[in-house]
Amino acid sequence: GAGGASGGRRWLSTGGAGAKTGFIGLGQMGSRMAANLAKAGHSLVVFDANPSSVDAAVALGAEKADSVAEVCAKECSTIVTMLPASKQVEEVYLDSKNGLLENANPDTLFIDCTTMDPSVAVSVSLACSERGHTMVDAPVSGGVGGAEAATLSFMVGGSSEGFGRSKEILTQMGKNIVHCGDAGKGQVAKICNNLVLAITMIGLNEGYNLALTHGMDPSTIANIFNSSSAQCWSSGYVGVPGTKDYDKGFQVALMAKDLGLAMKAAEEAGVQLPLGSGACEMYEEMKGDPTVALKDFSYVLEHLKGMNK
């Protein structure tokens, strides 16, 4: 049930002995992030809709919960969530019977690492505050590799107090922790970053497609781009065009999702995104093919080649 901010701290501090940490959402990213918390010595309580993901975390020493409410019942003072999208965040936090806010201990710290609509992050954060809890939105950059190696970047939105309380645990899952401003600003930062990333990835591969179609050697043009003003994060990521393993990395479907969030945020703010809207259309089109949807987002090179006359 609900509780004020005063009662809980006496018997359960955020980092004290016996305090437990909940982790909800053990997908590609969450499973690796939770594993790093287990390695760092947290008493973890985990829940995911997929039982095999839970079993894998239990094998690393985590305690199993059978529901969101049960994570709360196991007296977690901090709960991390890593969910697919806004809809799941609203369900997990706000469900009137089984949600986190209905069942959490007083003065719980919530760290939500989902990438989602900034306005949802703001409304859920407000609901947490009204119940005497603290929440930060802390979406990540760095992908599965960063989650595995605990080198993620966290873009954090929330109060200074919330940022201060969450920093210790975030440092155990990542290495670049930035306070972006109040609630929702972590989401704004993440969405804007991925907007720029999509645009540069498409621009880079338009250049590659043109050069390769004119018969240039792939490694020659890659060397030129990477030592000239076309050099960017995407050019380093792609390497020599055509050599990347498209089955690993940041999926086309996820980039399409993030660009959709950018378009919505732009519409709400009255901002035009001429290149962003083109990028969003292109990734939505790619996502329409179920095989391509799972490919790395640099697969846009193959998509562009397919558009050649």
From TrEMBL:
Its EC number is 1.1.1.31. One of its GO terms (cellular component) is mitochondrion. Pfam families: NAD_binding_11 (PF14833), NAD_binding_2 (PF03446). It comes from Lotharella oceanica. Residues 184-289 form the 3-hydroxyisobutyrate dehydrogenase-like NAD-binding domain. The keyword Membrane does not apply. This is 3-hydroxyisobutyrate dehydrogenase. The lineage of its organism: Eukaryota, Sar, Rhizaria, Cercozoa, Chlorarachniophyceae. The keyword NAD applies. GO terms for molecular function: 3-hydroxyisobutyrate dehydrogenase activity; NAD binding; NADP binding. Gene3D superfamilies: N-(1-d-carboxylethyl)-l-norvaline Dehydrogenase, domain 2 (1.10.1040.10), NAD(P)-binding Rossmann-like Domain (3.40.50.720). The active site is at K190. InterPro entries: 3-OH-isobutyrate_DH-rel_CS, 6-PGluconate_DH-like_C_sf, 6PGD_dom2, 6PGDH_NADP-bd, HIBADH, HIBADH-like_NADP-bd, HIBADH-related, NAD(P)-bd_dom_sf.
